[in-house]
Every structure is written in C-alpha cells, then in structure tokens.
Amino acid sequence: MSEEEEEESEEEEELVEVEEEESAAGTEPDYDLHFDEETELAELRKFREATEDEAFPDELDTPLDTPARVRFQKYRGLKSFRTTPWDPKENLPLDYARISQLENFNTVRKFIVKSHVKKERPVRKGAYVSLFIKNVPISIIESQSAAITVFGLLPYEQKMSVQHSVVQRHGQCDLVVKGKEKMLAQVGFRRYLVKPIYSQHTKSNKHKLERFMPKKGSFVASYYAPITLSPAPVILFRVEEDGSATLLSTGSTLSCNPDRVICKRVVLSGHPLKIHKRTATVRYLFHSREDIAYFRPVEVRTKHGRRGHIKEALGTHGHCKIGFDGPLHQNDTVIMCLYKRVFPKWDFQYF
User: Fold this and answer.
1) Which DSSP state fits 115?
2) Distance between CA 223 and CA 195 in Å, rounded?
3) Rounded to an integer, what is the distance from CA 125 to the centroid of its chain?
C-alpha cells in the first residue's frame, strides 16, 4: 500500500471517530427531559436587558404610542441629584403601615448594646441551662429529627421594618439577577424569603437604584424583614426550582431605616438637528408639543457636559429649541434625567 493510500485511510478513520463522538453526544438520554423552554427564553431576555443596561445605563426610548407626560407622570426632574431635597415621607406605599421605624437607629443600637448586651448577663458564658416550654404540640416533637436551636431577641427585633444590608457579589457567581427577584436571605440566625432591590452604597441622602445586581463593588440590598441590629452577617441565596440554593452575595447589615430614599432614574435622549452658536434644534427627545410643554421646566444636559433649558416647541412632531450654556458639537447627545422613588416588594416569608 502506498503512502497516499495510508494517509487517506487514516483520515477516513478519524472522520468516522468524530462522527461517532458527535452522534453519541447528540443522543444523550434524558437530555431534554427537564428542559423548560419558557424559562430559557426568560433567562435570555433578562441577559439581553442586563447587557443593554450595562452598555447604556438607564437609557430609555421615548414611547411613540403613549404620551411621555402619561408614561413618566410619576417621575420628576432634579437640579442636582446630590443636593436637591426629597421629602422621605412623601407618597409612601400601603406596606409602610405594617412596619415600625426607630427614631435614630444608631443611637438605639448603641443604647441596647450598652444596657442589654454588656450589663445584663443572667447566665454566665459557657454554662448549660434547662429550658421548659409549655403547650408544645406533639406533632412538632415528632417532626424534629435534630436538636432545636434557641436564640434570644434584643428589644425591637420582633418588629418589621425595611432592612438595608451592604453586600458584595460572590466571586464565583456570574448569574444575571434582576431586582425584586425572590431569594433566600440568611440574616444573623434568621432565614427568610425576600424580594430585595439594589442601590448604590453612597453617603448622599438619595441613592440610585441598580436594576440588576452589580457585578463589582459593594451595593445595598433593601427588603422588608424583622429589625436586626448591626453588625450581623448577611448571605443571599437564589433558590432553584429543584430546591437547591446558589450563593449570590455576602455582606453585613447596614441599618433599618424606612426613610432611605432610593430613586430610579430614566434617561431620555435626543439628537441635535441644527446648531446655531448656543442654541440647538433637537429631535427624538419627545414626539408632541404637549410633552415638550409638560417637561419644559426640567433641565437638560449633554454627554459632553453642557447644560440647558427648553425654549420652545417647533412644529407638532416633537422638535424643540434648546438653549445651552456653551457651543454644542454635532456629535453630542442631549439627555433628560427623570427620577422617581421606588420601594421594596412585600413578600416576606420565613424559610
């Protein structure tokens, strides 16, 4: 047999082996048995939303079928996100009638730690005690296969409030987690199911909402839960359909303050059509004269740092004339930032 025939036979054997491997991989038993197409599509949509939000944070196209004054009627413009005041008692949800608020969380925490933790020690450390519990159903005793753990609560820790925790995403977690998704929270010795929202960890009196769990840095998770005095460890898990739990983030409690203002930002964008010195005709920011008149008091700015105000509407298709504090570039983008306060979703349940 010649060398060419040997090479051809070797190539044919390799092709046969590759085909056999592919056929064996494609015929794995029960591969599609637990495949849920709806869940797969939902995860795909969530991944695309997270990717778009990462590339264009908070940007949203002005709707064509709904007037902007109706779609964004709960939003407001702010001269400065850092210094503009916002009343924390304004337009509170009905769930706030079910919670308690400490007048000054840090002062109360220091007083409780000083008076109850350091002074009152009815049982010395490391001692064994006997507890007698009355009226315990027999079903509970029969269902308990392991020892029962007993904890003591400090004052106010039996009341519900808005719990804020500073957490960081776990290094091995690469899942896309959207705000208000149900997850398992281990806070101190208590474990419950919550639907947290995420915000930036800053020292301002207002904090910007994060639509998805950030991948880097520290952030604040807020949810309805019993008051837990800090410091206490916090671990967030994602509960899968099969009952398993995936570790998402770890951290510690920050405070229990219902007055913490968390603002959701929406960025509307437009493009300069004509530029004359400091005045520009902008399109695509709105689509009707009524919307322009409604949002006229709100300040606009550009991505290159210019600031301005709407002067007048031009025509009936959403074009407007805007005056800026300096000359504008043709490749610049005009944006308007709108804000509204958001609250966690009440879905508390002990786990």
Assistant:
1) I
2) 6
3) 41
> What would the pLDDT profile of 290-336 be if each residue is shown by its tens digit?
999 999 999 999 999 999 999 999 988 889 999 999 988 888 999 99
**DSSP tally for the chain: helices H, then strands E:** 6, 15
Reported as a pLDDT band with limits 50, 70 and 90, residue 120 is: low
Give strand pairing partners of 265: 339
Q: What is the mean pLDDT of residues 281-288?
A: 92
What the block records as the tokens of 122 is 């009815």
Task: Mark 55-83 as b/e (b = at least 16 C-beta within 10 Å).
Answer: eeebeeebeeeebbeeebeebeebeeeee
In angstroms, the Cα distances linking 207 to 201, 204, 221, 338 are 7, 7, 12, 14
DSSP state of 288: S
Task: Look at residue 54 in the predicted model and tell me its pLDDT.
Answer: 79
pTM of the model: 0.81
* Distance (Å, whole) CA 136 – CA 294: 63
pLDDT digits (tens, 9 = 90+) for 1-29: 555 555 556 656 665 564 555 555 455 55
Supply angle C-alpha 347, 205, 177, rounded to 5.
40
The DSSP annotation for 171-238 comes to: TT-----BTT--EEEEETTEEEEE--EEEE--SSSEEEEESB--SSSEEEEEEEEE--PSS-EEEEEE
d(CA 345, CA 181): 10
C-alpha–C-alpha distance, residues 53 and 61, integer Å = 13
